[in-house]
Amino acid sequence: MDIIVCVKHVPEVAEVDLRIDESGRDIEKTGLVFDINEWDDYAVEEAIRIKEEYGGSVTVVTVGSEDSDRTLRRCLAKGADRAIRVTDRRIVASDPFIVAKVLSKVIKKMTFDLVLTGAQSSDYGYAFVGPALSSLLGIPHTTLVKKIVIKDGRVVVNRELEGGLEEVVEIKLPAVLTIQTGINEPRYVSIMGIKKAMKKELRVLTLDDLGLSVDEVGVESSWIQIEEMYIPSIERRVELIRGSPEEVASKIVEIIKGRGLL
Question: pTM of the prediction?
Fold first, then answer.
C-alpha cells in the first residue's frame, strides 16, 4: 500500500489572545507556536499503521513555508518514508481549492493507493481540500472516516454522521479519505525516530517544478478572498424567552436581525 498524506503546519491558538495583523486579513503570527494540524496527525498515524500491516510506503506532502519542515520531520520521525514541501510565494495558501490544485499536481506524478487528509484544518476549518482533491484526481472519496479496512483492492470505511451514527461505505482503490479525530491514538516521536528522520528524503518543489502558472494559483484564481478579519466583542448575557413557539421564534429572529446577522 503506497499512501500519500496531506498535512498542514498550523498555529496553536486555543489558549492565546489573538491579534489581527496590519493587513487586517490575517492573525498576528509572531510568537505563536506551530505544530501539525490535529486532524492530519491522526491521518499520518493511520497511514503508518496501514503500512505496518500491509507493507508499502508513506509520503507526507504539504503546501507551506520552510517552517513547515518541522511538521514534515515529525511525520518522518513517526514512520513516514518521504516528505515533499511545495513552497512558492505566488500560491494563495488561504484558498483550499488552490491548495488542492497544487497538491493534485504533486500527487498525479506519484504512484499511490490511498490519499489521506485530515477532515479539516484547525486554522480555517473549510473541510474542503479532501473532496476537491478527489475531484481533481478523478478518484472516489469519503469523509469523516473513523475506521479503515483494506480488502481485495477496495477499502471499507466507517464514517461519522450526526447524532452519534456511523455509515459503512465500500469504495474502490485508489481513493481519497478524510480522517476524523479519534480513529486511533497517535504515537509519540521517539529519539531514534528523530535521528532516522534527518536521513530521510525531504524534497522542495515550486510552481515551476509542477508546471503551474501564477494565473492558476494566484489571487485572480482564488475562490475565497479574505477581505477583513476582526476579533468579536465578548458579551455575557442570558435572556430567557418565554411564550408560544411562534412568539419565541419571532423574538429570536428579531434578536438575530438586531445583531446584523440577517
Answer: 0.87
